[in-house]
């Protein structure tokens, strides 16, 4: 197994401000600073002005508030507050979200033992004996016999029953990690063929079983590559990005470790966003201090989003686009990565009409629960039927993408997002009613839009430019910027021999990358409030 040696220098970050962000992004610090804040909050309450002046201040505020908003909206907002209070008895803890590490577990997943140990052993061996099926290098050809043997051994493993692990969720998650990595190794090391790829029953059956138990797609996901794919360098120290080492990589490269660690850092940094959301959903009384707190929290959220943008940029300091595109990305492909017309995968021993088999796309940042929670909290609507077309054609973007990606999350985490979506009081509606929140809300939207524009440049640099023989055909301003600045990565534009027929470049999530990411930028932009009193 290609686990990172404890103490290996990690290159997450790299630029000064990003290093600063990372220093501050340790989950434990985040939690302790939140603890201090909430303690301060309770201290402030104790030393609040005497009741009379407090009531006067409240009255002054309410008259200002009423004079600044439509009375009908005010009434309906207070009604919805009452509803929210009743419906929001659930907290993030109920959805397996840790107050310190968020969607990341608070300790590394345990390794499998007894009859399941064989799966662990096969995974540990895989990176030593397998290469991509279309790799014709001398090294790959020399390994061919060993690779054939590895796949034959996989086929000969009996179909194991995982019922004994039913009440051990962390073990089930480890089963998911191990089986999904084995499936990717198996499928992508097969020699190229026009036939459908057959996933042997020894992997397919227990994988579908465990996925049903966890409520997650039976394929490799963001959770398997990032959220669950780490161990502690010093087990006695807390879960912080500096104390995490990646366990599995396909390429054995530091680039791949860096890619996962940056995403793990974002999940940990995003815990600050989760705290803001949690506090917002617990509000029951909309008085002046509460409005100021929401304004302050939106400003903090804006800062956090900007820091996450820096983190995304830090991919460039440790992950080479060539390594990403040729040594990492091909292993991630799901059964839909090659588009319609490709026969895809067959899960032997599994009823082909099982609903779970509809979700076999590869891992994607769209499966990051933090990013989706942020979108839902801010009211970004990715699902509009008609998309603005900025490149002159009228093909719709894939508006179901973000919803589909939720099936690739742990069932508990998907349930949290669904819960968040159903809460009756949206921060966007509130900001539209209250002038004091208008700017903080719009600032947060601007920061998220900028994050998506910067992410799109990264995707162009790593995914599109490297995958094409000539430059990208698009009028989208973000792509023009990426190319005209000749950012690192654009030199790869002419080096590739894939996709010569100029089919749209497809991400591991299975979609047309440019159209999808552009639709995300546009959806974020559309959330901007134009007029505080009329835009809801
Ligand atoms: C080398 C770095 C990266 C590349 C090449 C890349 C590429 C892509 C591509 C091609 C997509 C389209 C959907 C798909 O097929 O997966 C996508 C979507 C997405 N990626 Fe990344 N990504 C990178 C890093 C990140 C990071 C660090 C994050 C942060 C968690 C992230 C978050 C997202 C999100 C949220 C989406 C869904 C679409 C959207 O929200 O606009 N990506 N990415």
Summed up:
Residues 23-50 have a biased composition (Polar residues). 53% of the residues lie in helices and 2% in strands.
Explained architecture:
The structure is a single chain. The chain is mostly helical. It has a domain at 114-254. Helices cover 53% and strands 2% of the residues. It contains 21 helices and four strands. The protein has a two-stranded parallel sheet. Strands 2-3 form a two-stranded antiparallel sheet. Helix 5 packs parallel to helix 8. The longest helix has 30 residues, at 435-464. The structure holds protoporphyrin IX containing FE. The site of protoporphyrin IX containing FE (HEM) has 26 residues, from helix 11, helix 19 and helix 21. Residues 23-50 have a biased composition (Polar residues). Heme b binds at residue 455.
Main features:
two-stranded antiparallel sheet, two-stranded parallel sheet, 4 strands, 536 residues, heme, binds protoporphyrin IX containing FE, mainly alpha, 53% helix
SSE topology sketch:
Blueprint: H1 16-24, H2 27-46, H3 51-67, H4 71-87, H5 117-129, H6 138-142, H7 144-156, H8 169-189, E1 197-199, H9 201-214, H10 222-227, E2 230-232, E3 244-246, H11 254-269, H12 271-281, H13 288-313, H14 321-332, E4 345-347, H15 369-378, H16 401-405, H17 411-422, H18 427-433, H19 435-464, H20 477-484, H21 513-526
Parallel strand pairs: 1-4
Antiparallel strand pairs: 2-3
Protoporphyrin IX containing FE (HEM) is lined by residues 262-263, 266, 312, 315, 319, 324, 364-366, 368, 371, 452, 455, 458-459, 462-463, 507-509, 511, 513, 516-517, 520.
